[in-house]
Design brief:
The protein has 457 residues and is of the alpha/beta class. It contains 16 helices and twelve strands. It folds into three domains: 132 residues, 3-Layer(aba) Sandwich (Rossmann fold), CATH 3.40.50.80; 206 residues; 91 residues, Beta Barrel (Elongation Factor Tu (Ef-tu), domain 3), CATH 2.40.30.10. It is 51% helix and 15% strand. The two termini are 49 Å apart.
Amino acid sequence: MVPPDPIEELPPVTTVQSPPAPPTAIRPRVVARTGLYAVPAANAAVVTFFFVQAGFGSNALIVLGRLTGLYGALLMAFQLLLVARLPWLDRRIGMDRLTSWHRWVGFGLLWTLLGHAVFIAFGYAELSSMDPVNQIVDLAGTVEGVLRAVVAFFLILAVGAVSARFARRRLAYETWHFIHLYTYVAVVLAFTHQVAVGTTFTASSAATAYWYALWGVALGALLAGRVALPLWRNLRHQLRVSAVVPESDTVVSVYVTGRDLDRLPARAGQFFLWRFLTRDRWWKANPFSLSAAPDGRTLRLTAKTAGDATAALRHLKAGTRVFAEGPYGAFTALHRTRPEALLIAGGVGVTPIRALLEELHGHAVVIYRVGADRDAVLYDELRELAHAKGAELHLVTGPAVPDRLAPAELARLVPDVADRDVFVCGPPGMTTAVLGSLRELGVPKQQIHFERFSLAG
């Protein structure tokens, strides 16, 4: 038999707390998703109207080619919106889910554009004596904008290839991101092709105005979220490292201060993309969660050494300039649906959990899962905070097998788990196992909150 894990429990302490805010009737994530789904649906209807208004033509393959090309262009514009990192969407949906949608829409875009090329090639080949390949070559050499479309298609094909799971795992993020930037070149080439030869838009001034407005909004959102907003915030707040505090041999906390931090809309549970502007690290951005709730004066991140980037944090000097993009993430109290909460952390995933505990109102239970006592990062802080807020704290240690957070163990520690909001953050394997346990225990999906750090180009 495997001996039971050591579990440290702190009895709840009665404290005076502000009453929890009542849950909203309509969840913010539902509102954002509904709006996001409505955007491509509404634009698809508008494009279809203009397409029908322009006339079909006599060749069915060419008609299908034109229509798939239009829908492909819509997907391309939607791609830009998904990676624009607009705060309103990010706080309600989360960068991880937006990134996942971006990836799947990207594969849909690839197949749609492939259909566009095939239908157009075979359609025009029917009207001439050429085979489809030579027909494309002829169109590229004789029709304005077609060569640009061919180049754009092959660029998107290359980006799609390196975004496939088997290839993505073998590439460094920086390499993948650099290749991914060619998508923006493809966007420009594809757009100029559409306005040059797209009969749907050349036949109607209203359709042309709509198409320019659509792409203006998509590109404007991208520039606003990815360029203008980060630059403005960093110029305003003038972030600098104020202190570097080793938490253990492998874990370090970095304190960042700046101007008007009370005006920075950061919440416990969110993360930033941090660039520390030293000579050797200024070009690298790394996602680290806030490990303490923002107090309007200081931001704190805590990281475990997992490579050169995290190892270098220990050697930062006070006064080092910081460029931070964010805050990002939907792993916040904004999405609470119940007055009581369960917070489950694994390893260094305790950092956003610790920050959330500081902000949350209502009774909370915290479960901290680590391999051994020495791996419990920030545990002393967590224990003091739990004591001050009247929360229950369980430290669960031991090897990963057998599962220490199986349904029976979770039900023993938190009998009313199905009546609580549950926030989960930890290594992917642990997170997946805990989510499975929560489903078995009947915790409603809308009460389960988790976030996987994932960046998109």
